[in-house]
Hints:
This protein is mainly α. The protein folds into 2 domains: 19-41 and 129-207, no CATH class; 48-122, no CATH class. 54% of the residues lie in helices and 3% in strands. The chain has a 3-stranded antiparallel beta sheet. α2 crosses α11, α8 runs parallel beside α10 and α10 packs antiparallel against α11 (195-207). The protein is globular and about 45 Å long. It starts with 18 loop residues before the first helix and ends with a helix.
Amino acid sequence: xxxxxxxxxxxxxxxxxxxxxxxxxxxxxxxxxxxxxxxxxxxxxxxxxxxxxxxxxxxxxxxxxxxxxxxxxxxxxxxxxxxxxxxxxxxxxxxxxxxxxxxxxxxxxxxxxxxxxxxxxxxxxxxxxxxxxxxxxxxxxxxxxxxxxxxxxxxxxxxxxxxxxxxxxxxxxxxxxxxxxxxxxxxxxxxxxxxxxxxxxxxxxxxxxx
Length: 210
C-alpha cells in the first residue's frame, strides 16, 4: 500500500532527465496524492463514482482511461470477464454518445456487476500501486514530450501531468505549443477563471513551490 508524507512540499528538487527516471522516482505518487487528489480532499484511491458512466480511483479513471486499469488488473477475478472484453466493451462505451454527468442507467456504473467488481478492486491490497502504474503509463506521452521541451523540474512535470490529467495529452500539447512551452505561462492559460483549475494550480503551488 502506498504511503503519503505529511509534509505539503517536496524536500528536494531534482531535475528529471528521462521518462524512466520519472517512473522510478517518488514524483508520480506525489503528483497523484498532493496535486490531483489534493491530499484526499478531491479524490481517493477507493472512490467509485457514477460520473461519466463510471469514474474510478485516484486519477478519476473514466472511459478510455479505464482500459489502462483493465490491462493491469485480473478482470476475471473482479468481473468474471476477459481483459479484451472489458477493454472493448466497458471503457469508452461507459459513456455512450453525448451522455454527460452521472450515470442514470446508461453507463457502466449502473450495472451492478461492474460497480461491485470495481469496489472490490479499489479496496484490494494491490490496487494503489496498480492505479499508480496505470496513471504513469497514461502520462508517458505527456512526460516524454515535456522533457523534449526542457521541462525537467518536479514543478514543470506536475504542471504538465496536472493539465493532461484534466484535459488530455492532446489538449495539453496544444496549450503548451500556443504559449511557447513556457511552464508558468501554460499553467496560467490552463487555469483562466475556472474554479476547479484554480484549485489544481493552488495544489501545484503548495506541493511544488516556485
